[in-house]
Amino acid sequence: MNFKKITALIIAAAMAIPLLASCANTGNGVNTRPAGDGGSADAGNFASGNFDNEDFTFLFIQQKAGNKDYYGGDYLDAESLTGATIQDAVYKRNLAVEELYKVNVTQRLEENGDPAALLQTFYMSGDFCFDVIYAWGYKLGMCIVENYFADMSKLPNVDLSKEYWCPSAMDDLMVNDSLYICINDISMNKLEWAYFLFFNKQLAEDYNVFSTFGSPYDLVREGKWDIDTCLKMISSVSNDLDGDGKITKDDVYGVIGLTASDFATSAGVKLLSKNDDGSYSLSYYNEKTIDVATKVNDILTNKKHSKDYTEIWENADTSGFNDDWEYVRSFFATDHSLFLSGCAFLTGEFRNMESEYGILPHPKYDQNQENYIHYVTPTASIFAIPSTYRTDIQTASPDRTGMILEYMAYKSNEIVLPQYYETLLKGQRLNGEDDQQMLDVVRDTIHYDLCAMVGLEGITTNFKNVVEKPSTASSTYKRNEAKLNKQLNDFYMDMILLNTQED
After folding, report:
1. What residue spans define the domains of the chain?
2. CA 221 to CA 435: how far, in whole Å?
3. CA torsion, ordered 200, 201, 206, 209, to nearest 10 deg
4. SS3 for 389?
5. Are residues 373 and 445 in contact, defined by beta-carbon separation less than 8 angstroms?
6. Residues contacting 345, CB < 8 A, separation 6+
7. Over the chain (503 residues), what is each successive 10-residue block's mean pLDDT?
8. Do 408 and 220 form a contact (C-beta atoms < 8 A)?
9. C-alpha dihedral over 166, 169, 173, 179, to 10 degrees?
10. Which of 24, 208, 220, 374 has its CA 20 to 30 A from that of 441?
């Protein structure tokens, strides 16, 4: 459905107003949580409002694999104090919000639904019983041009420059000065799903990696952790444990799951560059990209040193795991691979790992690169605001949505973030000060890939093909250049038209 059809949706919604009486009210209209003092201390520092104990509802479109919630997390709602670190912090944060604004924070859960189909159904039926949408990033991003979402950069009572809104991420996701999907500290996803490197400390010792190439922690602190050094470490580890003359998943090797595109983006290669007029140009085909691709593919295509996920799970019995991906990661946890490309979410899988693991940033291109760079997976859940505000309650408005989100993000930064970042990750899942410092490096260098987030799949696919096969990179790029430029220009023109309709 094209965004031009939004008028028809609004008309249909208006005709469906009687349906709103049947909206499931996730609360009873009264805040029944015990009293506290969480919000009173902040009165006067944020916009004031009293919303008659009406619901403020997050529509959570959750995706699961087995019993595991991937890319979402329990960051929106908690009914009571249970002793669980994160859930208790969420409860306390919500209580502060509820007290300050006399509102009932609730969650409406839709499990394993497709956001595009669900939102179309909701909009057509007039079912606007939610204030904020929370779902996989790229799936929400693909809905932007349908005019399902409000521009958050214009939302009253919100300051996107604040730390708890992650300004670097906001800049990555801003198009034509408008922001339709965003992340803030209400969810820990930008920290939980930013990809970096795990390494197995026992294998590093057994194969003399540090004594040969130096401590990777020191290299990071000195700004010397670069692609060349990382590749040397990967290629130094290979051992045919069973003596069958080949290196299989049951032997020892340098890395699992690290791709040429991972190296390229951490080296500062950007898929798009923003022009002075706000439009975009393709920017990933250049000498630097080819240099990175040539270096890394010599190692990544060598099965003695590198394994990808498909190779490990192919024809394997993965029934004892939540999914194929978790099965593959078990080979890192059982001392088969020196490195693993992963993220903070995976620390929960490695709690019973016998060997100690450490973490490192993705490497720089060279020592002249100013900062390390880490991208959040586009599947990590993200926020959007419905373009039509709910009509089943009296107090719903852009002002209300803005002030509650602003304060909730602020209180999350104050209450939830320290419990997740300091208590859970640093205090329980990392092995000492060095790894804690590496996590700080990752946290300070988080970004989003706009192409992946808004469904420009032709560009992301072509980029991967370019960096994975440098010998044919020129023909791969040039053969598709005109088509990709058209795709990019069409998206940008759709965004301009969308903004014009809003104005």
Report:
1. 3-28+38-192+379-429, 196-375+457-484
2. 12
3. 90
4. coil
5. yes
6. 192, 193
7. 41 37 40 52 88 96 78 92 95 97 95 87 84 95 93 95 91 93 96 97 97 96 96 97 95 97 97 92 97 96 96 95 94 98 95 96 97 96 92 92 98 97 96 96 96 96 97 97 96 89 64
8. no
9. 0
10. 208
Three-class secondary structure assignment of 196-246: EEEEEHHHHHHCCHHHHHCCHHHHHHCCCCEHHHHHHHHHCCCECCCCCCC
CA angle 26, 69, 57 (to 5 degrees): 25
Task: Report the alpha-carbon angle 101-419-188, nearest 5.
Answer: 75
Enter the tokens of residue 403: 């002030």
Distance separating alpha carbons of residues 462 and 261, to the nearest angstrom: 11
**Alpha-carbon distance 272 to 274, whole Å?**
7
Fold equal for 3-28+38-192+379-429 and 196-375+457-484: yes
Per DSSP, 416 falls in state I
pLDDT value, residue 499: 79
Q: Are 188 and 423 in contact (CB under 8 A)?
A: no
Say how far apart CA 302 and CA 473 lie, in whole Å. 19
